[in-house]
């Protein structure tokens, strides 16, 4: 009886190990995008060129992700030092217009504009304005938007 019990335990152990090995052989390819639509708010409050370009590249990468393609809305909210991305004196026009053509909402905090004495004429004409960047982040959060702060 002991031999049969040991044999059954041995066979059960081998079966378990085989099942475990098969599970571990699966290749992870990322999360499955099983929702109909996604919303993401990218936050930019930095004037560093590398940070700005990285953020714009991240947005484009999300738009081109095959899992999200055609079912994502993205907004870029700039406030504080992030206002530099939208200034006509800086070299981001072609990157921004490409994102705008892809449907990205480009929003600027009005508080920053007022506090820094920046006029709308100093920014690209296709920029939208919100009362406050922080307010936008809070509202979007409670609307269920993912927030990305590269």
Your description of this structure?
The protein is an alpha/beta fold and 150 residues long. 43% of the residues lie in helices and 17% in strands. The chain has a five-stranded parallel sheet, with helices on both faces. The protein is globular. Residues 5-12 have low confidence and may be disordered.
Could you give the order of strands across the largest sheet? 4-3-2-1-5
Instruction: Give the number of DSSP strands.
Output: 5
Report low-confidence residues grouped into runs of 5 or more.
5-12
How much is the average pLDDT? 90
Percent of residues in helices comes to 40-55%
Order of helices and strands: HEHEHEHEHE
Describe the main β-sheet briefly: 5 strands, parallel
H/I helix tally = 5
Distance between the termini: 64 Å
Write a compact overview of the structure shown:
The protein is of the alpha/beta class and 150 residues long. The chain contains five helices and five strands. β2, α3 and β3 form a beta-alpha-beta unit.
Architecture blueprint of SSEs:
Elements: H1 2-24, E1 38-44, H2 49-64, E2 72-78, H3 93-101, E3 105-109, H4 110-115, E4 128-130, H5 133-142, E5 146-148
Parallel strand pairs: 1-2, 1-5, 2-3, 3-4
What features would you highlight for this structure?
single chain; 150 residues; alpha/beta; five-stranded parallel beta sheet; 17% strand
